[in-house]
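queue> pop job 88
queue> type: inverse folding (structure -> sequence)
queue> payload:
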């Protein structure tokens, strides 16, 4: 019996990161959703962390790809291989398929075809069962929001490819809005800016580092500071280092922040006034890697006059929530997910 119990997984299959929660053990895997493929032979050369280390450093024959885009599976074969690799890693060997079952998170409002594709990544290989759960629901459960009560909770999940905003009440999603932009779009903006302003070509990993260092503090709280950035001069092609003022980057984030504020407003307008009232009073929970942007909560609070707070484990709450669903940690959850998830 214990064997089947400990093969129950909650899986957050994100555009940037894959997290796996195992019943009885908690978060057991945290790796980038990345694969390095040999273009000539089609063979997979590396997964996750190893593939991440290769970004911008591969020979021509190897390509590093994200098999998920905008939160949905863009390459089914690659996603299945990646997940299989990760679950084997967690269990320490092959032979996991027959007894494993999983709840896999999918973005809010995706089609049934997308949901089925996510389920099939497990079932295709012979797993006992798989179901999907929409990310905001999993995040709310994982973060311990009052999920089943008749009060409105709002949460914002800023991932790599998308930002999902949702208002929940009584165990369901009342309104949601998905912005097709997240952390990766900010990195792209930084790459473009460095090209245009300094004629400097930088890689995406450097752009991500710059973003994390710069943060999103409100103007008056911004610390002045510079960051040494290395790249290639676009004119002569030679390596060059510049001292970048972090203020410039924080300003670059403004477009994203204002877009986010608009999206929050639209979502609040669409929801019943009682629930909007709850949100104004109780605040908005932020999760996802993008929510870690230093000072973002403070900045949004100043711009909207709504309290914002960070989930306790912003990058883990989706996987934890999906794990709680499959692990049936309480009877209420048990009933709920059997009805709603359509476990197969
Ligand atoms: P997904 O659910 O799409 O896989 P994640 O929730 O894992 O995405 O978040 C990934 C995004 O979070 C990336 O764009 C990454 O750059 C960003 N991120 C991670 N840590 C930080 C940080 N400390 N500050 C700002 N952004 C961060
Ligand atoms: Mg996510």
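queue> result:
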């Amino acid at each position: 019996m214990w064997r089947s119990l400990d093969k129950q997984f909650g899986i957050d299959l994100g555009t940037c990161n894959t997290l796996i929660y195992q019943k009885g053990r908690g978060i057991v895997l945290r790796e980038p959703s990345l694969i390095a493929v040999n273009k000539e032979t089609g063979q997979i050369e590396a997964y996750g962390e190893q593939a991440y280390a290769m970004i911008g450093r591969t020979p021509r024959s190897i390509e590093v790809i994200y098999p998920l885009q905008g939160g949905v599976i863009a390459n089914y074969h690659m996603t299945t291989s990646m997940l299989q690799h990760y679950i084997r890693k967690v269990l320490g060997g092959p032979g996991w398929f027959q007894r494993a079952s999983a709840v896999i998170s999918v973005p809010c409002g995706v089609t049934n075809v997308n949901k089925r594709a996510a389920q099939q990544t497990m079932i295709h290989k012979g797993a006992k069962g798989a179901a999907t759960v929409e990310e905001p629901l999993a995040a709310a459960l994982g973060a311990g929001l009052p999920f089943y009560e008749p009060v409105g909770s709002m949460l914002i999940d800023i991932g790599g490819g998308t930002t999902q905003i949702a208002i929940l009440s009584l165990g369901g999603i009342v309104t949601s809005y998905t912005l097709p932009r997240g952390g990766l779009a900010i990195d792209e903006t930084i790459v473009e800016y460095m090209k245009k302003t300094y004629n400097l070509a930088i890689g995406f990993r450097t752009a991500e580092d710059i973003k994390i260092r710069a943060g999103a503090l409100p103007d008056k709280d911004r610390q002045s500071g510079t960051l040494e950035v290395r790249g290639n001069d676009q004119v002569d092609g030679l390596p060059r280092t510049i001292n970048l003022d972090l203020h410039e980057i924080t300003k670059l984030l403004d477009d994203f922040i204002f877009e986010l504020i608009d999206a929050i407003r639209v979502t609040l307008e669409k929801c019943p006034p009682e629930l909007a009232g709850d949100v104004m009073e109780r605040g908005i929970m932020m999760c996802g890697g993008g929510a870690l942007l230093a000072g973002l909560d403070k900045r949004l609070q100043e711009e909207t006059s709504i309290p914002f707070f960070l989930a306790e484990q912003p990058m883990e709450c989706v996987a934890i929530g999906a794990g709680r669903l499959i692990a049936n940690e309480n009877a209420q959850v048990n009933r709920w997910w059997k009805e709603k998830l359509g476990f197969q």
